[in-house]
Automatic annotation (TrEMBL):
The chain crosses the membrane at residues 42-60, 66-85. The lineage of its organism: Bacteria, Bacillati, Actinomycetota, Actinomycetes, Propionibacteriales. Pfam families: DUF3040. This is DUF3040 domain-containing protein. It comes from the Bacteria. Residues 86-113 are annotated as: Disordered. Keywords: Membrane, Transmembrane, Transmembrane helix.
């Protein structure tokens, strides 16, 4: 449900006053600190992945067990990085976990809209 112009202005005023009164609380509520944490984790996971590749290559020359450890480091880093990156939304805000079945994609809704339009035309006698 969209906000009216007056409600948006009031909300912006409330946000500005909260930011002026208590910047730490406003930062925490905006989620920007959480975004930074997840981005930092994703960056560390990337570095760990590179370390895992180095251990994997070194293990080929030293001992096969070292290569397995390198692969496990790479796997763990990839999982941590993907998990951390998914927690940050496209707009820089923390993404909310989906509950229930996933929503339909826009192409599906476009398809349904076209079907409904064709049905209305048939009912009105416009499409033979």
């Amino acid at each position: 449900m969209a906000l009216s112009e007056q409600e948006r202005k009031l909300l912006e005023q409330l946000e500005a006053s909260l930011m002026a009164d208590d910047p730490k609380l406003a930062d925490r509520l905006s989620g920007s600190a959480e975004v930074r944490v997840h981005r930092r984790r994703a960056a560390l996971a990337g570095l760990s992945f590179v370390l895992g590749v180095a251990v994997l290559i070194a293990g080929v020359q030293v001992h096969p067990a070292v290569s397995v450890v390198g692969f496990l480091i790479m796997l763990g880093a990839a999982l941590l990085g993907i998990n951390s990156w998914q927690r940050v939304g496209d707009d820089g805000q923390p993404s909310k976990p989906q509950q229930g079945p996933p929503k339909s994609d826009p192409p599906t809704s476009d398809f349904m809209d076209r079907l409904e339009e064709r049905w209305r035309k048939r009912q009105q006698g416009g499409d033979n």
